[in-house]
Amino acid sequence: MTNEASVQGVRGARPVAVRPWGRRRTAFVRGAFAAAPLCLLVYGVVRLADPDHGPGAAWTAGHLALAAGVALFGVVFLGLRRLAVPAGRVGRVGAGVATGLGLAGAVAAVAQAGVDLVVGWQSADRAGMDRLFEEVQSRPGVEPLVYSVGPMLFYVGLLWIVTQLAVERRIGVWRPLAVLLGTAAMAVSLDLIPLGALLYCAALSPLGRDVAARECAARADLAYAGGDPHTVAGLRAVA
């Protein structure tokens, strides 16, 4: 069965010098597509179970899961960009910009989770956390870079690249819609993070298989061509 990393847009493409990923790297990236939204789901569930949102085991566990999930989304961005290859110049630039924005947003979100963890460790109660948060966020540049504009780039990059892949008919149109709905749900209320995570999981998890199939086909093409990366074209994507 042909997977969603469709060969449409690949047939007749100019040969692209693309070194396929190794099996271990491919397996790690494939796993990240499922693990990233699941970590986000864990964070959302733990957060709901801690109504006081104060320092303690729940706060620490939830934010560790959040940091791990966002970091793994950085890997997901690299996999999604891989699905956009080969492409024309506009497609390559678009995928590159989207990936860059997404990675920048992921770095900001991980930094935010790190700040939240440190504040939780150094505070005895919620009032103490609020005071530390105010102190940290009052420093120049921290609030926009770590708490508002910076993390927003993550969602912009994610929506951009999945929409581009859908427009290029490499993934189903419903997938960017699911990502959009998940993002909107989390924007409406942090209590809806589990719902958003489930929508992300439905939209993105199967694409890890597509990345793995693409890399497997690329390795086969490379072996058939005698190891010359400049002959890797067509990149059969079958699963």
Task: Note down, in words, how this protein is organized.
The protein is mainly alpha-helical. The chain is elongated. It has helices spanning 23-48, 57-83, 89-122, 126-137, 142-147, 149-167, 174-188, 193-204, 207-224.
Keywords:
0% strand, single chain, 71% helix, 239 residues, elongated, disordered C terminus, mainly alpha
SSE topology sketch:
Layout (H helix, E strand, L loop, with lengths): L22 H26 L8 H27 L5 H34 L3 H12 L4 H6 L1 H19 L6 H15 L4 H12 L2 H18 L15
Helix pairs in contact: 1-2, 1-8, 1-9, 2-3, 2-6, 2-9, 3-4, 3-6, 6-7, 7-8
Mind telling me the C-alpha Rg? 20 Å
Distance between the terminal alpha carbons, to the nearest Å? 6 Å
What is the residue-mean pLDDT, rounded to a whole number?
Answer: 87
User: What's the story with the biggest beta sheet?
Assistant: none
Query: Number of DSSP helices?
Result: 9
What would you call the structural class? mainly alpha
Helix content: over 70%
Note the overall shape.
elongated
Strand content: under 5%
- Give the tally of β-strands: 0
Spans of at least 5 consecutive residues whose pLDDT stays below 50 are 1-16, 228-239
Order of helices and strands: HHHHHHHHH
